[in-house]
Each structure stands twice: as structure tokens, then as C-alpha cells.
Amino acid sequence: MTVTIVGSQLGDEGKGGVVDLYGDAADVVARYQGGDNAGHTVVYDGDKYKLSLVPSGAVRGKVGILGNGCVVNPETLFEEIDTLRERGLDPDIRVAERAHTILPYHRVLDGIEEDEKEDLAAGTTKRGIGPTYEDKMGRRGIRIGDLLDPEVLRERLEYVVPQKKALAEDVFGKETGEAFDIEHLYETYKDYGERLAEEGMTVDAGTYLQDRIDEGDNVMLEGAQGTSIDIDHGIYPYVTSSNPTAGGACVGSGLGPTVVGQGEVIGVVKAYLSRVGTGPLPTELGGVEGQTPEYTGDGAGDEDEEELATYIRDEGGEYGTVTGRPRRVGWLDMPMLRHAARASGFTGLAINHIDVLAGLDEVEVGHAYEFEGEELLTMPPTTEKWGRCEATFRSFDGWPEVDWADVAEDGYEAIPENARTYLEYVADELGAPIYAVGVGPGREETIVLENPYDGE
Ligand code: GDP
Ligand code: IMO
Ligand code: MG
């Protein structure tokens, strides 16, 4: 069977930890979208692993697949694999021949366009994600399979590189270097192709995954990013260029919707909001220079909010895994979660970070929005309308700081009562049961109520 792990907010909900938590029962872990813009953290036995591209299942020694829906920077891929090897792991990673390749000019153009866009900039990770997906859709991309055939590689480069060079130089007025040099790119990427071939790392991912399922193996589909930064369902244009939602798990892995749909889809929820990037955020507390629109930083009568935001940011370690940027923080946004639960059809929830909110007198939740005199329970379809939504809040009594390691050992009933009230409110509103509750970053700091691979 399959279990799909989907971020239900704006990324960084703790997906890597949930993949690791349930990873024991999985035989194969496949990513279906995104690239090295992701930053997934696995903490096990005091060791911390930060992965951008390699599926988080690698920490448990599972076969890792980068599906056709991914965009792959071979340089990052090999760096990560080498680092894991240095740490004593032996990752078995296979890359879909249909996946697209991130080239150096994609990264350069990502940076150039972000600067150019000003208010429309998403605050990207500058890893070249958007420009690579653009080329995929424009039918001028270079796929991983193309790296294995030098003739095809050269032909593709000769077509596309002059266009990219002209774009950078003539449209944006920038000087270009070796990132736009056909010979340099050909030699470098031909070598990557050779290494991929030598290490037997390429695969027809959909066929491989289906064969494993037919043999009775368990597949986990690991989403990156989150629903509200999905290219279709997110806060366009402040989004990433792929589909983190569960539909993406079919298209991006090569498994049919009937296969993925027979399995489980777990929505990963952070007990509050965090966001690295720009765009509106109705339940935001305080703000962050350079990311919060029209942020003045003078407190403007909201010193308490700023203080609370700083507190949560520090308690939760809310600094970008990939870029180190301070993340914006806010209260839980229920319309955003209802939208996510519908878009992906969650069958279960993993709610993380309730330990971070411990010790607050009260915890607020954006239960609904007020928009032009009406109550909205879900997100409006345009970001401009979303920006005009005012959150209407519900208040929950806070819960105390406790020894979370003990709680994790003792189980769900050991969670402070007020925190359980909060969790059950979320589950009721979303109509999906709680499968796991995160009370700390470690594998052992999670309370498991349900293992999706049980009862197949
Ligand atoms: P991902 O991108 O969704 O995989 O999440 P990230 O790894 O980028 O960010 C989540 C961060 O929160 C990581 O540092 C995790 O180790 C940490 N984390 C995950 N679950 C919990 C939790 O329940 N409590 C706390 N305090 N930290 C958590
Ligand atoms: P994980 O998998 C949080 C955000 C960027 C930016 C927008 C577009 O760790 O949850 P991109 O580089 O993808 O073109 O940037 O998306 N973003 C993420 N935010 N977590 C992520 O991944 C993200 N990946 C991209 O900050 O606003
Ligand atoms: Mg992350």
C-alpha cells in the first residue's frame, strides 16, 4: 500500500519527522515533487539529519526514489549522498529518468527574476526550482535520462542555452559566465550522467514503484513544501512551482490515483503557522523585515505580538533549514487547514510542535475569516482576496510546560488536557483523525495513535 505525507500549511510542518516516524514499515520512500528547495529534518537518537533532496527515508536505510515530478540538481544530490556516507549510512537513491535537471543557469535566473519582481517576489530559495519547472512545461527542459546520452544532452543544450543567455543578457541586462556556457555545461553534466549510470542510480520510477507494490511492499510518498505554497492551490504567485498536494503524488510518482487513493494521505500540521517567504498571512504575529508585506518593524502598538512572535520563533527554532532566514510566525489558520484537508483528502493527521506553545496563558486560533462582511470557513481563491481577510479568533486555555519525554512515553492521555482540547478541535474541524502528535523534534518524542501501515 501507499502512505502519502503532505504538508498542510506553508512548509516546514515536520514532514521529514513524520516520514521517519512511520518509515520503519515502508520499504521504499519516494519524493514526488520539488527539489533542493526542501529542508527536511530527521532527529533520531540525538543525531540530526538535514535533507534537501534525498528522501528522508534514507536515514532508516530505505530505498529512496526521486520521482518524475521532482527537479534534481545532481550537484546537491551527490553532495548529500556523500555526506550521508561520511556519516556511516549507505543511501540507496534512484532518480527517475523522467525527472527534470536543474542546471546552473536556472539558479542564476531564479535570483535575477526574484530581484526584478519586487513586490511579486516569492522570496524563493534561489535553487532554480521555478525556472526548471518553466522549462519542463515549455518543453525545453533537460531530463535526467538525457544526461545518460551525450548526443541528446548536447542537442538539448545547444537549443536551450542560447535562449537562456539572451534572456539574462538582453532582457535582464546581466553579464553571464560559465553557467551559460554550452561546453562547460556539457562536460559537467555528461560527468554527472556517467556517475548516475555507474552507480546504477536511474530508474523508470512509476514502473519500479508499481512493481514493488505488486510484490507486497509498502511505499511512502514524501511531499515537500505545503498546500498553501502549491502552484495551483496556494497563494499564487507567492508559491513554489510544483504540486505538494496529494494529486501531485500520483502525477509525480507515476502511480495511478486509484493506487494512491487506496492508501492513506496524512496531513502534517504544525500547531501554529510558520512561513519563510512573502505574501499575506492573516494570522501573522509581529512580522519579519523583507518578508512581511509593508512591515515597518516599529511595533505600531503591537509590541506584545512582536514579543510573542519572537518567543515562538525561538522556542520552535523557526529559522529556514535551507536559507537560515527567520521564519514569520502566526496562530493556526483553520480556513487554510480546511482548504488543505479538502484539496488532498486527508485520511489522518500528524499534529506537531504542541510543546512549542506550552507555557502560554492562552493559545489563539484563526477559526474563520471575515471578508466583506461575510464569514469564510475556507481560503478564497485569489491571494488578493486572502490578503483582505481578517481572521476571527477562538481562544484556548494554554497548557503547561511538562516533561515531554515522559508524555511521549506515557501516551496520548498524558498530554495536558488543554492541549488535547486544542488537538481535538483541529481534528473535529478537519474531519480527520489524529494519527500522531509531535511533542519534540526526535523520533521518540512523538505519540503514535495510529500507524497507517497497520490494518492493511
Ligand atoms: P519539514 O520541511 O516539513 O520536514 O520540516 P522542517 O524539518 O523544515 O522543520 C521542522 C522543524 O521542527 C525541524 O527542526 C524538526 O526537527 C522540528 N520538529 C518536528 N516536529 C516537532 C515537534 O513536534 N516539536 C518540536 N519542538 N520540533 C519539531
Ligand atoms: P519544505 O519541504 C518552506 C517557499 C520559499 C518561497 C516559495 C518559492 O522544507 O517544507 P522556491 O525556491 O520553491 O521557488 O520558493 O516557496 N518554500 C518553502 N518554504 N518550506 C519549504 O520546503 C519550502 N520550499 C520552498 O520560501 O516563498
Ligand atoms: Mg523544511
TrEMBL record:
Keywords per UniProt: Cytoplasm, GTP-binding, Ligase, Magnesium, Metal-binding, Nucleotide-binding, Purine biosynthesis
Cofactor (UniProt): Mg(2+)
Residues involved in Mg(2+) binding: 12, 39
EC number: 6.3.4.4
Chief localization: cytoplasm
Annotated spans, Disordered: 283-303
Highest taxon listed in the record's lineage: Archaea
Catalytic machinery residues: 12 (proton acceptor), 40 (proton donor), 136
GO MF terms, alphabetically ordered: adenylosuccinate synthase activity; GTP binding; magnesium ion binding
Binding sites annotated in the UniProt record for substrate: 321-327
Positions of GTP binding: 11-17, 39-41, 327, 353-355, 438-440
Entry-linked Pfam families: Adenylsucc_synt
Cofactor note: Binds 1 Mg(2+) ion per subunit.
PROSITE patterns in the record: ADENYLOSUCCIN_SYN_1 (PS01266), ADENYLOSUCCIN_SYN_2 (PS00513)
Subcellular location: Cytoplasm
UniProt pathway: Purine metabolism; AMP biosynthesis via de novo pathway; AMP from IMP: step 1/2
Signal peptide: none
Cellular component, GO, one term: cytoplasm
Gene3D superfamilies assigned: Adenylosuccinate Synthetase, subunit A, domain 1, Adenylosuccinate Synthetase, subunit A, domain 2, Adenylosuccinate Synthetase, subunit A, domain 3
InterPro entries with a match to the protein in the record: Adenylosuccin_syn_GTP-bd, Adenylosuccin_syn_Lys_AS, Adenylosuccinate_synth_dom1, Adenylosuccinate_synth_dom2, Adenylosuccinate_synth_dom3, Adenylosuccinate_synthetase, P-loop_NTPase
Protein family (similarity comment): Belongs to the adenylosuccinate synthetase family.
Subunit organization: Homodimer.
Functional description taken from the UniProt entry: Plays an important role in the de novo pathway of purine nucleotide biosynthesis. Catalyzes the first committed step in the biosynthesis of AMP from IMP.
UniProt-listed NCBIfam families: PRK01117.1 (NF002223), PRK13785.1 (NF010357), purA (TIGR00184)
The name this protein goes by in its record: Adenylosuccinate synthetase
Lineage: Archaea, Methanobacteriati, Methanobacteriota, Stenosarchaea group, Halobacteria
